[in-house]
Specification:
Elements: E1 3-7, E2 14-22, H1 26-34, E3 44-49, E4 55-64, E5 75-82, H2 84-95, E6 100-102, H3 107-114, H4 120-131, H5 135-145, H6 148-173, H7 183-203, H8 209-214, E7 216-221, H9 228-236, E8 254-260, E9 263-269, H10 279-294, E10 297-300, E11 312-315, E12 332-333, H11 339-360, H12 368-380, H13 388-405, H14 412-419
Parallel strand pairs: 1-6, 7-9, 7-10, 10-11, 11-12
Antiparallel strand pairs: 1-2, 2-5, 3-4, 4-5, 8-9
Helix pairs in contact: 4-5, 6-7, 6-13, 7-12, 12-13
């Protein structure tokens, strides 16, 4: 295997630049630049020189002998001054050393996976951590990167292995004619299979990573000309939706991602709810109902009682004649000309969204494709017959699916797609 190198810290210029070098030739290359190696895992100052002896930089150097390193290989870190010229000079010197090449994006982490230092779930969590923009995303990604989801999956696999062993023992040692009739042996196994199935299914109750990334879905709904599009633009602080006094201007959902006080939200404007013979307008109304059904928070701008008890009921156009007083029922009154009223509505939305995201974070989040794999594993264990052969086959299918989550069966295409998300030097 070749030896790779890359800058693993931020792009220069910076105060410090960390250049990593991993592979069988890492220590030889380090000796060529620094002369001697420090003791393992001990930072030591070294003067780095090129092949002609010219001084490149004075840097801290650390050595991590494999397999007990981040990549599972011999690994060297050069903590250099972070100027562009310094980094370029050190990289050029490394590149001239035989057997060394620049790393591809994510290649350090990929080697960690291939060498058993991390599993696929941890690698995906690390990718999410690098992309995290909000606190909820960071918490979810950290749980995956630190192995919480992996530990849970391995526990399921251990249970599957134990159940499979019990079924195999039943098949090996029971009399053939008595296998199907031996309820005393089969029923406890089926009971434990049901417990495992329910445990996996319960883990699917939490939101997916993609769901956390989108944040709380806030749907604005109500009758035509209630001010829904105007409110969306005010909340998003941009002209995301077309505003017009003509009824039926909004025919389809309009979505606007917003980050408010560290909270990710997706604001959704909908068509006015009205009975209509217009085919296009009717499609818009149908999609509005779909959006309302999938909303985490419903902001209702109608004067009638909201369709959901937990909806945020807004008394809109409070500056219009006859609407100056907040009636009984609505939570907050707003006016497009009163910034404080929009701020009050934001306070209500943010409070409820914060509570919702905190609840979402109670269960370690998985990617949608990971959830589908777990769902398939749980479904394969549902309503099993009392035939040991069929029970064994169902357990084998669940085992294969759960193993894929850990990367035991990962294909090259899937790995390429994952590690392409990483930055250079990670």
């Amino acid at each position: 295997m070749t030896t790779i190198f890359a800058v693993s810290s931020g792009r220069p210029p910076a105060a410090i630049a960390v250049i990593r070098c991993s592979g069988p030739g890492a220590f030889a290359a380090a000796r060529a630049l620094a002369g001697t190696l420090p003791a393992p895992r001990t930072a030591s100052l070294r003067r780095l020189r090129d092949a002609d002896g010219a001084l490149l930089d004075a840097a801290l150097m650390l050595c991590f002998p494999g397999p007990a390193s981040a990549t599972g290989e011999d690994l060297v870190e050069f903590h250099c001054h972070g100027g562009r010229a310094v980094v370029a000079a050190v990289e050029t010197a490394l590149g001239t050393h035989p057997g060394l090449r620049r790393a591809e994006p994510g290649e350090f982490t990929r080697r960690a996976l291939e060498n058993g230092r991390i599993d696929l779930l941890e690698a995906e969590g690390l990718a999410d951590l690098l992309e995290a923009e909000t606190e909820s995303q960071r918490v979810a990604a950290m749980a995956a990167a630190e192995g919480q989801i992996s530990a849970r999956t391995r526990a399921w696999l251990d249970t599957v292995a134990d159940l499979s062993a019990r079924v195999e023992a039943l098949l090996d040692y029971a009399e053939e004619d008595d296998v199907l009739a031996d309820a005393a042996a089969i029923d406890p196994i089926l009971a434990d299979v049901a417990v495992l199935r329910d445990t996996i299914a319960a883990a699917l109750a939490g939101p997916s990573v993609e769901r956390l990334r989108d944040g709380v879905r806030v749907v604005i709904a109500g009758p035509p000309n209630a001010g829904k599009s105007t409110l969306l633009n005010l909340l998003a602080e941009r002209d995301a939706a077309i505003v017009s006094p003509i009824s039926g201007t909004t025919r389809d959902r309009v979505e606007a991602p917003v980050l408010r006080g560290g909270l990710p939200l997706t604001l959704v404007d909908t068509a006015g709810l009205v009975e209509t013979d217009d085919v296009v307008e009717a499609l818009g109304v149908a999609r509005a109902h779909e959006a309302m059904a999938s909303a985490d928070l419903l902001v209702w701008l109608g004067d009638d009682t909201p369709p959901r008890n937990e909806a945020i009921w807004v008394h809109a156009r409070s500056d219009a004649a006859g609407r100056e007083v907040l009636p009984f029922g609505p939570d907050v009154a707003i006016s497009a000309t009163d910034a404080d009223s929009i701020g009050s509505l934001w306070d209500v939305i943010a409070s409820r969204a914060q509570t919702m995201l905190a609840t979402m974070a109670d269960v370690p989040a998985m990617h949608a494709h990971q959830q589908r794999t777990c769902e398939e594993a749980a479904n394969s264990l549902d309503h099993l017959p009392r035939d040991p052969l069929l029970i064994a086959e169902a357990l084998a299918g669940a085992r294969r699916g759960l193993a894929r989550l850990l990367g035991i069966d990962a294909t090259e295409a899937m790995l390429d797609a994952l590690f392409g998300r990483f930055c250079l030097g990670k």
